[in-house]
What we know:
The chain is an alpha/beta fold. 49% of the residues lie in helices and 11% in strands. The protein starts with a strand and ends in a 21-residue tail after the last helix.
Amino acid sequence: MIFSGTRFVKRATxxxxxxxxxxxxxxHVLREIQETFPDRISIVRLNGLLHADDRSALKEIAxxxxxxxxxxFSKAASFEENLRFLTVILEQFSLSxxxxxxxxxxxxxxxxxxxxxxxxxxxxxxxxxxxxAAVIGISCRLDADxxxxxxxxxxFSQRKILFLPPPSEEITRFLEAVLVIPVDSSANLAQHxxxxxxxISAWLQMETTKELVNKLAALDSSPRNIIDSVFRNLLDxxxxxxxxxxxxxxxxxxxxxxxxxxxxxxxxxxxxxxxxRDTYTFNSVFKEYQDGYKSSDSYSKKAAYxxxxxxxxxxxxxxxxxxxxxxxxxxxxxxxxxxxxxxxQGLEASPxxxxxxxxxxxxxxxxxMFSLITFSWNVSAEA
Length: 383
């Protein structure tokens, strides 16, 4: 487009509009060009859904350029200041034989803005013979270029590339890839996934679904429109289909697949909440477990911490402060993301849950009353 081998074909500005289904091919081409010429091309992306006004859009252009070239970015800069900054950048790019590519996703939304100031100023900047830049608009609307005002259209090169819509078979494969659930290693959760996937396969083979897919292929086959169009149809089908899923919901199945130690930790958290502790750290949970379960075969703190991390990964518990994960996770407060009723059902559904743990769950006191009971299961493998 701009480069040929390792040299420039010519100094030129390019304005092109890609119309039709979302241009996956264009994404691949841009990525390949950037990987081939990392020091000779700079790509800036805007989206009509995110950048609602011209000022925020031009500010985003300046921000991306500053981040890429390690320049200081001013949040308080006005529209005119950012426009002057872009002008200087284009001049420097021309001297250093570097090209700028501006990619405008949802181009039709930019064209629908009042006065189209952003498009006018961008295309006006590229009129200089020394500018080496490309403005690429991407839209699912075939009439996107007709939305341009006369003064903007006069600066547009009128170069359009139309993407043909995918065939019905490709849309069906897309729906299958989006809707089918990967089968988890957990046996109980795999039953739910397999039951749901069987419904999806049956739904894709229905004549009404095939008619809908053919209609989408003829009218608007963009991924966004496909999902919006089939959603209600799929919900009606699932609602009217008799359930063949297992008797336990997914949360109960997830609890039933936990180890004995993980069930002990959840029960310890439940007991802390009974003591009016809304949040608690790993150390306080482990202390509750140690105080209640006094036995020679109790789990180590290291094994308990691994079980604690697994509960976080399964999203059965979560950090109460909502911050990102840190290295001091054992000191951060957490809370249960399941109800007491779900925990009780999970204990009942678990094939390895000992009877003493179920009793401890229902007792308001400590587990010390059960310390003399001989446990019948082998905990050494769990540790």
